[in-house]
Amino acid sequence: MRRTTTRSGTRPGTRSGRELSALDAAYDECRRLVRTTRPTEYALMQLMPPVARPVSWALYAAFAFADDLLDRSAEAPEERGRLLREWRAALEADLASGTSDDPVRLALTDAVWHWGLDLGDLLDALDAVQRDDDRESVATWAEWRERAHAQNMSWPEQLMRMLVRVGLPVPVRLRDLPGFTRFVEGLFLTDMLRDLPEDLDGGHVWFPTEVLDRFQVTRAELLAREWTPAVRRLVAHLADQAREWLEDSRRALRNTLPLGPAIVLDSAVALFGAELDAFVRAGSAALHRQVRVPRHIEWRILGPARARAAVVWRLTLPPGRDAAAEASRTAAHRPAGVSGDDSAPALPAGPERHTTRIAEPPLPPRPHRDGARPPAIAEAHLPQHVAIVMDGNGRWATGLGLPRDEGHRAGAVALRDVVQGALEIGLAHLTVYAFSTENWKRSPDEVSKLFAIMRAELLDGELLDHDVRLRWVGSPDGLPEDVVEVLRAQEHATRNRTGLTLNVCVNYGGRAELARAGASLARAALAGEVDPARVSEQLFAAHLPHHALPDVDLLWRTSGEIRTSNFLPWHAHYAELHFTDQPWPDVDRRDLWEAVVAYTHRKRRKGAASAPAPAEGTE
Ligand code: IPE
Ligand code: IPE
Ligand code: MG
Is the CB of 435 inside a 6 Å radius of any atom of ligand 1? Predict the structure, then answer.
């Protein structure tokens, strides 16, 4: 059963100074717990952007705490089970009330509230840990896998959700990425080998019976820590297996993950690999005490990873987000709404979220990160329809020594901010050029990454959490099915929104659009429905595939190119043109406002001797 986050109760937004210091202490306690009990995972978390670290400690500390509780050998099994059930029930109560008297639960509660994490999913994962305690053994690899997934998918996904909230277009549904389940299995098996001494202390052997049988090893033999040739062969095989899964996942995920998470994944595979090496080298000792990776090996992996990660996060996080977070050490402490942060949105829970996740009712526009306020422009002076050629992603990325797709990711973040700015000034229509019919000339790799980013953005980005009605302008021909699906699904999900209409041009070509209108008219003429002598501009427009699109008042292109590249030839026939030099990823809502203010000063004569009503008047 899935639970929903109740948003009644004390919101952490109203915490007092004393509560804030309790919160600091709670996150610190989580940090301490993870650092001392899971040093490898802790080191990996330090590769995340600073804003994400407290959340990752809280998420992981909760799981480590539950897991360790069950591994405790001092208590009888029934007692351990009871303690965990109580802890789990207290957590649910804390999450409903928004506060807690236990440090780990307090930090987790704060993280869930503040970042709008999926509580139901987290509790399900904790339940899966609990279920382990009720079973004696695992029969097959299939059953073992199920267990690995149930316990370990949730927290990394929640962490991704949090990164999306700070403006990084990372994929949230990690479980849908080919290769991620393999990673989780490799991680789980490595962890199991590492924890072998404690598991044996607690009387558990969690390897599937199927593999024990294959190597002719009995549970009793393992529990007695007998180092027989069969046991040796078994553990060597398991270590190889874990390494193979980790490597497989690295290969599969290399091209799907954005640079930041990819650095964390690469380092995880290297570090866990080093743990497996150390485990195998330790021989029989690995059954008696946990084996640690030598410091110098850890440093060899982590040193360069830290440097790379720091650069990548600095470049890909929207400016200001992480610095602000670092200044207050734990941005997650800052009250939602009070800080001007885009936090704790009331997201609907439920299985439908990942197909058409949108906030209902929509959230108000997120304020600008530096507090910039929109210009006051009278509605009569606003352009009704602004169209943008979001150009320069590729050059932005290559200029920074990054692959082109990082430019598209950063471009997606820029669009989020511009949409917030459009909502703030009350713009009716914004049309953005996301993929032209000419863009198929690019490498298949760039094209497929671009679509993956677009899809993730529409599914998990913040765009549709606000009062935005999405319309897709373009043709399905040649587009991947999942992109068409998400465009249609989100069009449907947002159809009743009344704020900004955001038209995204995906697989759009202006001439193709005109040709389709021509074909449609010709068909109508052949069918005797249209008299060719009476084809007017209005009739032609009615045959355009996207005839509901209003005329463009202002067409803006970034990155210094002064052309329109087959964009909206019909609708932009009388548009005011605006060209700016900065590449699209460097744009934010203030640039949109500037463009709109410049527009208000234009004289729109449309062929007449003087403009009917001067469009001036920023108030
Ligand atoms: C615009 O940026 C985005 C798309 C065309 C999809 P570009 O990818 O064209 O960036 P540049 O023009 O190569 O710098
Ligand atoms: C136009 O940009 C298309 C989009 C922004 C999606 P391009 O970068 O593809 O255009 P050209 O090739 O410079 O004209
Ligand atoms: Mg371009």
Answer: yes
**Ligand 1 atom index nearest CA of 561:** 12
Q: Which structural domain range is residue 427 located in?
A: 378-600
Q: Which residue has the higher pLDDT, 372 or 552?
A: 552
Q: Is 558 a pocket residue for ligand 2 (Cβ < 6 Å)? A: no
- Indicate if 439 belongs to the active site: yes
Nearest residue (by CA) to ligand 1, atom 8, is 394
26 occurs within a structural domain = no
The tens digit of pLDDT for each residue in 260-301 reads: 899 999 999 999 999 999 999 999 999 999 898 888 898 889
CA dist 237 and 431 (Å) reads 56
How is residue 325 written in tokens?
């977070």
Report residue 546 as tokens.
């996207």
CB of 585 shorter than 6 A to ligand 1: no
> Does an H or E element contain 385, and which?
strand 385-389
Say if residue 442 carries a ligand binding annotation. yes
- Answer whether residue 419 is part of any domain: yes
We report the CATH number of the domain holding residue 483 as: 3.40.1180.10
436 in helix, strand or coil? strand
H or E element: which one contains 472? Answer: strand 468-473
Mutate to test the pocket of ligand 1, among 441, 559, 563 (most ligand atoms within 8 A of CB): 559
pLDDT in tens, 388-411: 999 999 999 998 888 899 899 889
Closest by CA to 452, choosing from 224, 171, 184, is: 171
Could you say which DSSP state residue 478 is in?
Answer: T
Candidates 170, 107, 158, 152; CA nearest to 268 is 152
Rounded CA separation 351/2 (Å): 9
On whether residue 333 sits in a domain, the answer given is no
State the DSSP code for 247.
H
387 inside domain: yes
What Rg, from alpha-carbon coordinates, does the chain have?
28
pLDDT in tens, 427-446: 999 999 999 999 999 999 99
How many domains does the structure of the chain reveal?
A: 1
Is 391 a catalytic site residue? yes
CB 207 within 8 A of CB 185: no
The predicted pLDDT at position 167 comes to 75
Other Cβ atoms within 10 Å of 209 Cβ, number: 15
Supply the pLDDT for residue 94. Answer: 87
Best mutation site among 390, 393, 586 for ligand 1, i.e. most ligand atoms within 8 A of its Cβ? Answer: 393
Query: What average pLDDT score do residues 409-436 get?
Result: 95
